[in-house]
Amino acid sequence: MTNQENKSAKTALITGASSGIGYELAKLFAKDGYNLVLVARSTEKLNELGGQFWDEYGVETVVITKDLSKEDAARDVYNQVKEKNITVDILVNDAGVGTYGLFATETDWEKEKSLIHLNVLTTTLLTKLFLKDMVERNEGKILNLASIASITPTPLMAVYAATKAYIYNFTQSLINELKDTNVSVTALLPNATDTDFFNKAGATNAKVTDNLDDAVVVAKDAYNALMKGASKVIPGGLGNKAQEIMAYLTPQETLAQMMRKNMEPKNTAQTEEKSNKAAWAWGIGIAAVVIAGAAVALAYNNSNVVDKARYRYKAGKLKSGADDVYTDVKDALLSGLDNVKDAVATAKEVVAKARETFTEAVS
Ligand SMILES: NC(=O)c1ccc[n+]([C@@H]2O[C@H](COP(=O)([O-])OP(=O)(O)OC[C@H]3O[C@@H](n4cnc5c(N)ncnc54)[C@H](OP(=O)(O)O)[C@@H]3O)[C@@H](O)[C@H]2O)c1
């Protein structure tokens, strides 16, 4: 039975499905039998995708060609959906762009204005319009594309990172407002991902592009989190999760300096590569120790006598890990890492806290 015959099939509206993360998400929805409303500027690509989904999965696709950086674009999309009598069960606010360069002297205001409109205003209004309907039905899900940049100041992409901070904060507030409903909103915080994003932002030469996550993995993790109604998802491996914890533990000035090095052009960044790597290793090391410590402590508290002995052994190992991280931090600082000087107090505190956790777990 195709979805045309299956009137109970649900519909997902995805902005920015013509490439990258949105494209990978659209494939996952289609595979699961969702009808789709795809919105972006590239009509041909979206039509092609719709044809492919029909052939492979028998799902219907409505294409809405729209420049979402324009005034009234969100309302227009909503009106078109209403006119077609479509109920949107899931909204994915994926469309977004970045722009690269020093804010004061290099970036272009017109581009930034249109970026803010797309990333912030359109996402907010689409959410407002569709969320109201979802709340009335007491059913629905929304996925908002934030970024790891939502929680880290990002020099050379200052305006972009600020828009993503808005999206993350906005989403977390909505989650609280919706807690007594069956409507969920999920924030997706990918790290740098292998799509056309950096190319369009004029940032292909930035150091950060040396290490990109796979859009297929990002979309899969996002899809699973959205379906579970999770409040947020940081896709990928432990490294990305550790980066999140580091962002919460590190002073903003230090974080900004780390991100600056990561965003600089490759040739400039190479000269500073050593100190940058040390800084990241420092943060990720601390975060890994804290995560591991918390996991061991939690497991210890919930385990039987035999397991407790096992966890004591693990905690002992972790303790020496914490010592290693502490030594690394000291070495990094002594070898001239001026940019992490501010962090020493935090580092000591965090390692001391980690030690305290292990000690509690084994005492
Ligand atoms: N790649 C990363 O490193 C990364 C990391 C964190 C978060 N994100 C976020 O992930 C989202 C998707 O980005 P991506 O990495 O998949 O980049 P991408 O491959 O460049 O995809 C961007 C999508 O947004 C659409 N779009 C851009 N401007 C638009 C406009 N004015 N009107 C309508 N649609 C527009 C594009 O479609 P058309 O060009 O056809 O209009 C395209 O489908 C963005 O919100 C981005 O901020 C990306």
Automatic annotation (TrEMBL):
Q: Which InterPro entries match?
A: NAD(P)-bd_dom_sf, SDR_fam
Pfam families attached to this UniProt entry: adh_short
Keywords attached to this Swiss-Prot or TrEMBL record, sorted alphabetically, are:
Membrane, Oxidoreductase, Transmembrane, Transmembrane helix
| Domain of life, per lineage | Bacteria
Report TM segments: 279-300
Claim: Oxidoreductase is one of the keywords in the record: yes
Gene3D superfamilies reported for this sequence: NAD(P)-binding Rossmann-like Domain
Kindly list the GO molecular function terms attached to this UniProt entry. Answer: oxidoreductase activity
Which family would the database say this protein is a member of?
Belongs to the short-chain dehydrogenases/reductases (SDR) family.
Q: Which PANTHER family match?
A: ALCOHOL DEHYDROGENASE (PTHR42901)
Protein name listed in UniProt: Short-subunit dehydrogenase
